[in-house]
Specification:
- With 317 residues, this protein is α/β, with parallel strands linked by helices.
- The chain has 2 domains: 8-186, P-loop containing nucleotide triphosphate hydrolases (Rossmann fold, 3-Layer(aba) Sandwich), CATH 3.40.50.300; 203-310, Hypothetical Protein Yjia, Chain: A,domain 2.
- It is 25% helix and 25% strand.
- The strands form 4 sheets. It has a 7-stranded antiparallel beta sheet, sandwiched between helices. It has a 3-stranded parallel beta sheet with strand order 2-1-3, sandwiched between helices.
- α7 (152-163) links the parallel β5 (141-144) and β6 (171-174).
- Mean pLDDT is 83; it is low at 203-219.
């Protein structure tokens, strides 16, 4: 777990690379928006993936979540199940459900790993956010990711947060690019960890229509002052690499994730804190985008995105 932009997806991809050859691993992905960006990324890496989209696991912790877990356990029978909750989610209800009731008899719940961008620990917008605080409080392994971007003051602040955690963390670590130790997954969970804000987080999901010849209907979610916008593009849509890169760099958002077929090939676009990373990827069924921001200014996004569409990319199919 970890707040927006902490590097959870990259961390899971790195864990999947450490999977023993004789084991079957699955990933349950929860995304705040309706569009399965992370699911598409994990699937492209060869992982077995199921998604719970359109809200947070802590809000969908009832039937949709139970069904998704049950289907994975019965249909896939994985040796290990990794769960990636949305960065806006609160982990308490998820952990309670996994460790109790029916799941107690079929799951051995191990350590919860929380990734933190240490630069955020000096920003009251994060440190006063109840979900952010309890993601840290309920974790067994606390990792400062993106240390290559952090200064000494941020590193020291992270260590103070970690030292103040009670019960003490099983592991406190610093890393870059989500390089987690696969052995951390087998650390025993400490059920004595308590949430400071167990009733935090309210969310609602709304769907809006859009009459747009190039895009499916955009979908929005709202929670904790954040809005999400997402859409899946028609098959064979192709984007001008230079134009779409420039556009995503200009958008003001907390988080942008996209998988696009471009005139230069397929790419994953990832924007957090104004920093963009672009990684080549295997072809997906459709191009798609998810944007999370603190304000709702989506009315011009469809037409702007359409201006980046070019003729079909014959070399990306």
């Amino acid at each position: 777990m970890g707040f927006l932009g902490a590097g959870k997806t990259t961390a899971i991809l790195n864990l999947l690379k450490q999977k023993p050859a004789d084991e079957k691993w699955a990933v349950l992905v929860n995304e705040f928006g309706q569009i399965g960006i992370d699911g598409a990324i994990f699937a492209a890496s060869g992982a077995i993936v199921r998604e719970v989209a359109g809200g947070c696991l802590c809000c969908a912790v009832g039937l949709p979540f139970q069904v998704a877990v049950n289907r994975l356990l019965t249909e896939v029978k994985p040796d290990r199940l990794l769960i990636e909750p949305t960065g806006l989610g609160h982990p308490k209800r998820v952990l309670d459900m996994l460790a109790g009731g029916y799941f107690r008899t079929v799951l051995d719940v191990r350590a919860s790993i929380c990734l933190v961008d240490p630069r955020k620990l000096s920003d009251s917008r994060y440190t006063s956010h109840e979900n952010f605080v309890d993601q840290i409080a309920l974790s067994d392994v606390l990792t400062a990711n993106k240390m290559d971007l952090a200064d000494q003051a941020a590193a020291e602040l992270f260590e103070r947060w970690a030292d103040g955690s009670r019960p003490r963390k099983a592991v406190v670590a610093q890393t870059v690019q989500g390089q987690l130790d696969v052995a951390w997954l087998d650390i025993t969970r400490n059920p004595a960890r308590q949430a400071s804000f167990p009733d935090a987080h309210q969310a609602e999901s709304i769907q809006i229509d859009a009459d747009n010849r190039r895009m499916n209907s955009p979908l929005q979610n709202a929670a904790d002052g954040y809005q999400s916008y997402g859409t899946v593009f028609p098959e064979h849509s192709c984007f001008d690499y230079v134009r779409i890169t420039r556009l995503l760099n200009q958008l003001k958002a907390e988080r942008i994730k996209a998988v696009f077929a471009t005139d230069k090939g397929w790419f994953i676009f990832n924007v957090a804190d104004g920093v963009m990373t672009i990684v080549p990827c295997n072809p997906s069924a459709n191009s798609r985008i998810e944007i999370v921001a603190a304000q709702n200014n989506w009315q011009d996004i469809p037409s702007i995105l359409n201006q980046c569409v070019v003729d079909r990319c014959s070399d990306t199919d």
